[in-house]
Design brief:
By secondary structure, the chain is of the alpha/beta class. The chain has 12 helices and 14 strands. The strands form 3 sheets. The protein has a 6-stranded mixed sheet with strand order 4-5-6-7-9-8. It binds manganese (II) ion (MN).
């Protein structure tokens, strides 16, 4: 008997997609409804692939709902699956831990009468006898789940396909947090046939040697520029000997990309725009109806360096116009990062002499000043206090990551280019005036 199980995680239903819906004219509706549309795709895939079971490894919800519509959106999809005779099991993760969710809605029961959510009081085993499958799992009670939950999971049941459903940050790191810590080796030792993990949004298999697949399916819809590329779920094919293979299926309705343009060989700003247009044309061929959200990143050592830094606002507007004009409604620019450098072979001694040379020297030497982060922090303090919390950001998404050396050097680079270009323009004006 062969069976199919769909494994997904980190739906983050109705999570706001960062930094987009604040722009005028952005395809706001499409962006806001992206996680719901991806979940609908999951339901459709489960039905069209005729899967026997759907498991969701935590963070179905992004947090407590602002209104009941988020819950209703899930009820709708769960009901569709139940009507199609497909059972579903969901555990709660750090984002939708039991004590964080104050609202709830009555959920449909699975076709066999069992509940969709797994307990947060103890690890449980759910048997699907006719399928020869048992799922072991446990929900988070609270966000900061520091216990090794996997250690509480029961021993495998022989003769059945044993699937472990777990939300975990594994050994933990600063980005993902140390939630429900455990190691891939501990999971392997458990003796299950497949580990369906959630929490880490990048797809990965941590299988050790001949051990079972230990799979993070990743989230089903990227939510910001750090969640690039295809997102979706995996479908596990289990054979009659309880051996399994799995395959990825994309579910996302919009996709984030970095569009890197090397401006080294360019002499005109228009060439940047041409290059971006080519990128759009190429990407649209494989977009498959998805909205593409590129962040344009300009790199390279170029005589355009100063100009690009100075004209950033105009350049963003130009790039957005090209996105709209050539993207056929399928492209929206996320943002621009100018990361170019000034040509090193520039004849500094000719261009810069006297006050300009000393100014350039002062600006360049700021980069070596150890107190710079502190100085900038104190300069920004007043502004930071006035910024609303969501714009201030935090950790890896902070508005002013003053401890980030790369950010700081780009800030300096940009400021230097700006000041020098202004001085240059002023000097030019002065010269032509003198000539006249
Ligand atoms: Mn999580």
């Amino acid at each position: 008997m062969t069976r199919k199980i769909l494994h997904a995680a980190d739906i983050h239903l109705d999570s706001p997609l960062q930094k987009l819906d604040r722009y005028d004219h952005a395809p706001v509706q499409r962006i806001r409804s992206a996680t719901r549309a991806a979940l609908r795709n999951l339901t459709e895939l489960a039905i069209s692939e005729n899967v026997d079971l759907v498991v969701i490894a935590g963070d179905l919800y992004d947090g407590d709902w602002t209104d009941q519509n988020t819950g209703l959106a899930f009820v709708e999809q769960a009901s569709t699956l139940v009507r199609a005779g497909i059972p579903m099991l969901v555990i709660r993760g750090n984002h939708d831990a039991a004590n964080l969710m104050t609202s709830s809605l009555p959920l449909p029961s699975n076709p066999d009468g069992s509940e969709i959510f797994l307990s947060h009081d103890a690890a449980e085993s759910r048997f699907f006898e006719p399928l020869g499958i048992v799922v072991h799992g446990m929900s988070f009670r609270s966000r900061a789940e520091k216990r090794n939950l996997a250690a509480k999971y029961p021993d495998p049941v022989s003769g059945l396909f044993n699937l472990g459903l777990l939300h975990t940050g594994l050994e933990g790191d600063s980005v993902h947090g140390n939630y429900a810590p455990c190691t891939a080796a501990q999971l392997t030792d458990k003796g299950y046939d497949y580990w369906a993990l959630g929490h880490i949004h990048t797809r990965a298999d941590l299988k050790i040697g001949d051990g079972p697949p230990i799979v993070f399916s990743g989230n089903i819809q990227g939510r910001h520029i750090r969640e690039q590329g295809e997102k979706g779920c995996v479908i596990i094919d289990v054979d009659s000997k309880n051996q399994c293979e799995y395959q990825f299926h994309s579910l996302d309705v919009l996709r984030w990309f970095e569009c890197q343009i090397d401006v080294t060989a360019m002499t005109q700003q228009d060439e940047v725009l041409d290059s971006y247009q080519d990128w759009i044309t190429e990407r649209l061929e494989t977009a498959d109806g998805r909205l593409l959200i590129p962040r344009v990143r300009l790199i390279g050592e170029s005589p355009l360096h100063m100009k690009l830094h100075q004209n950033q606002a105009n350049l963003v507007a130009d790039l957005q116009a090209i996105s709209v004009a050539h993207g056929a409604g399928e492209v929206w620019l996320e943002d621009l990062r100018v990361r170019t450098t000034a040509p090193t072979n520039r004849s500094v001694s000719v261009d810069l002499e006297g006050p300009m040379e000393s100014l350039n020297h002062v600006l360049r030497s700021l980069g070596d000043d150890e107190d710079l982060p502190e100085i900038i922090t104190s300069e920004l303090e007043g502004l930071m206090k006035k910024l609303p919390k969501e714009l201030r950001g935090s950790d890896d998404d902070a508005a002013f990551p003053v401890d980030d050396k790369q950010w700081m050097s780009q800030l300096l680079e940009s400021a230097t280019a700006d000041v020098m270009a202004r001085m240059d323009a002023a000097a030019d004006g002065h010269t032509s005036e003198a000539k006249r």
